[in-house]
Amino acid sequence: MDGQMTHQENNSEEPQYVPSGAKMKPAWQESGSGQVVRIIPSSLSKAVPRPSPEFVKRFERKYGKGSVAVFIAIIEKVSSNLSDVARVFGFTREYARHVYKKIYGVPYGKMREAKLQLRRKARIEKNDREGKNRPYLREIGERIRSIGLDYELRKKARFYFYLSNGKTVGIRRCKSPLRIGNVQYYRFNNFAWSPDEFDFLVLRCEGRRRSTHYVIPHQFMPKRIVSLNPESIRSSTKYGRFKEAWHLLHAGLGQSQAVG
């Protein structure tokens, strides 16, 4: 009964599972010396599946021929976890943990950590690729590195920078200034983040020839709406002191409180 759950008449702990993928290439095989030889190399951890012949016999008698290979194939997917493999076989997550240790000889924690690292690496690479296609993010990143800090580009609803000193920097930009008389104002409103969500907020006023940035610590962030005129004298406006104030990112919040 391939691909179906069956119950044995005895009071076994879990229902029997006969995998429909039993014909798949096994992830391991037994050599002539009785040792288990790896066929599909693990890319997630140094752990190699070495189930005892007795365990394989018991497990496959209960869950079907090839079920150990199916278990290995599922659990070694970067996107899978114990709950996923437990759901396929119809047993509990804790029993899946027990089976993993029986097959690999070590706790699942090492493979879990390896998966988390791979996911994080993939996320960073994806964000970097997307960020490289956005010139404004590249420019801000260059400004950050110019003051001796490195960063990781992350994304929630929008991109933000996680700095090497542990600070976070949110980004908002305006490309269409509002002209009042002979003065152009860049208006920022409808802030999607609360003021305390990031340590700093960079407001980017994008002009035809160049862009101007306001580096504002979270305690000075506007609650709703702010209008900025990059052409005004630095000290004559409320936020003028934060104009191109990239050094504040390096100084940290303690020193930024004394700005102005």
Compact overview of the structure:
The chain has about 260 residues and is of the alpha+beta class.
Question: Can you identify the CATH class of the largest domain?
Answer: Alpha Beta
Low-confidence stretches: 1-43, 253-260
User: Number of folding domains?
Assistant: 2
Structural class: alpha+beta
Order of helices and strands: EEEEHHHHHHEEEEEEEEHH
The profile of the biggest β sheet is: 5 strands, mixed
- The whole-number mean of residue pLDDT values reads 76
Number of helices: 8
Q: Report the principal-axis shape.
A: elongated
What would you report as the Rg, rounded to the nearest angstrom? 28 Å
Number of strands: 12
**Helix content percent band:** 25-40%
CATH topology of the largest domain: Trna Endonuclease, Chain: A, domain 1
Distance between the termini: 77 Å
Beta percentage is 15-25%
Overview of the structural elements:
There is one protein chain. With 260 residues, the chain is an alpha+beta fold. It folds into two domains: 110 residues, no CATH class; 123 residues, Trna Endonuclease, Chain: A, domain 1 (3-Layer(aba) Sandwich). 33% of the residues lie in helices and 21% in strands. The chain is built from eight helices and twelve strands. The strands form four sheets. A five-stranded mixed beta sheet has the order 5-6-7-10-11. It has a three-stranded antiparallel beta sheet with strand order 8-9-12, with no helix packed on it. The chain has a two-stranded antiparallel sheet with strand order 1-2. Helix 3 packs across helix 4. The longest helix has 24 residues. It is elongated. The N terminus and C terminus are likely disordered.
